[in-house]
Structure formats: structure tokens, C-alpha cells
Amino acid sequence: MYAPSPVAGKEVECADAAPPCLCQPRTGKCYPARRRSGGCCGSRRPSDPARVRGTDDHRTGNIGGTPGEEGPCDEIWAKTNISVGAPLYASQDPTFSGEFPPGVGAQLLPNLLVLQELHFINTRDVPVEVSGEINIVAAAPGTELIYANGLFGSIDDIALEPQTEVVLRQKCTVPVDMDVFVLGSHFHSRGTRFEINLLDEAGEPGELVYESTDWQSPPLDIMPTDPIHIPAGSGFSYACTFKNDTDDWIYAGESSTEEMCMMVGIYYPDAGFLRCGS
Predict the structure, then answer these.
(1) CA 260, CA 252: separation in Å to the nearest integer?
(2) Which of 13, 176, 235, 254 is buried most deeply by CB count within 10 Å?
(3) pLDDT, tens digit (0-9, with 9 covering 90-100), for 250-278
(4) SS3 state at 30
(5) CA distances (Å), 66 to each of 27, 69, 74, in order?
(6) Which residue, 45, 44, 34, 24, is CA-closest to 225?
(7) How many CB atoms sit inside 10 A of residue 52's CB?
(8) Domains of the chain
(9) 104 Cβ neighbours under 8 A, 6+ residues apart
């Protein structure tokens, strides 16, 4: 859940912090928390009990709009992109739930248009009814929270020669200090390995912090008690290994016959939904 929101506050030394302040032992820093009088704040990741297994992903996104807007799905979905909206939840597994770090949550601002998108392939010879659910757990009124938001990186320039194996790599630097507690990945069937490394002091790939070889159900690493602290100007390097064993060129796209290379993360304190750059 990463709806855009105001920044929760700059970090300060724990020894100098006035209450209310939530301290993070790993970094020795703490972030001033804001008091909520109510509203919808997530205390854990939602679940998605789908009745038929999807072959790609289940995404829920939000954009500014009027609640209750109706119209053709293509017309409404065409209004959404990373610059005007942000994902609330995404998964390639039938069910999923996960925890936020203690004292951390996310918020849904008023008057947002929330869209739900499910991808399925019906392998039967009769129609099958499918559904998906998103369960959002609200924080109790008055709960003091540090807000979290999303981090996203994508390699969009993909052109795979026939009968070749290639590694595409890109850096993901961040403009603010942050603690990252979720890392995940997405690519399609020609992807054989996804890796995320921390950038070292020279700005080059260093420690491996995430790896996936499963394009259908990539792991989502959740670190609620041991987040990765990333100082401003540093970040990650992520890479996709692709094997094109066909006689055709393969390009970037949303189809299962095309490819993607996306890194996702969740961090705090909230500085907005960030599309990281190199």
C-alpha cells in the first residue's frame, strides 16, 4: 500500500528526539511520528485469496479521481501510470500477507480512484468465474505511525537478439535517506535470474540482497525487523538475465511473449512514491 502522502518528518538522533518518536535500532535514528485521528492506515500487507490461479499478476493501483466513477475498463485504466498513480498491492501468488515494521503503516488519502486488475488464463473448455479480494487492516484511531511508500525501478529498453543470453543491469539511486523493508521483482518467461545488489562506496554493485530464478512466483522479501538503510545518493543495482532461445527478437512489453525487468520495494519514512533513477 503506497498511496502518495506528505513526508512524515526528517530523521533525528534518538538522543535528541522529543516524544512521540519511533526509534530504529539498526540505524540509531528515529523518525517523528504523526498522530492520526482516524482514517485507513495499513498495519500489515493485505491478502488476495483468488479462486483460480493467475498466470501473471494481480495489481491494485490508485489515482486521484472521483469515487464511484464508472466506464469502460480500458478508458479508466488508460488514465493510470506511475507518474499519476501508485500501486497499492501486487502479487503473482494466489494468496499473500505480510507485516509492516512496528510503528510503520501506509495511508489512503481521500477521494482516490482505486482500480483492481487481475490476469488469468482459463485452461478449461467452459467459462470460469474468478475474483480477487484486497483486505486492508485499519490502524486504531490515534495510532502514531511512520508512513511508508513505494520504490520502483524498470529497465524499459529491452531488445533480445534471437538465440542469445544477456544480462541487463541498471542502478537505482534514491534522493533521501530511507529504510527499505520489502524487495521484490518482476520479469517474464525469458527471464532466468533477477538480482538486487547494494551499491558499494564506489557506486558499483556490491552485496547481494535479493535473488530470484522463478518468473512465475518471484519471492517478495519482507524484513520488518531488519530493514536495509540506504543513505541519500546511494541505492541498489538490479539486473535481469534473459535467455532468448527463439528465432525472433523479443522486446519490452506487457504480453507474455514480451519482456519486463522491474524492481519493487517499500521504504520509510514516506517521501512519496519514488521511481528511482540511475
Answers:
(1) 6
(2) 235
(3) 999 988 889 999 999 999 999 988 988 65
(4) strand
(5) 41, 6, 17
(6) 24
(7) 17
(8) 12-275 (2.60.120.230)
(9) 22, 145, 146, 147, 148, 181, 268
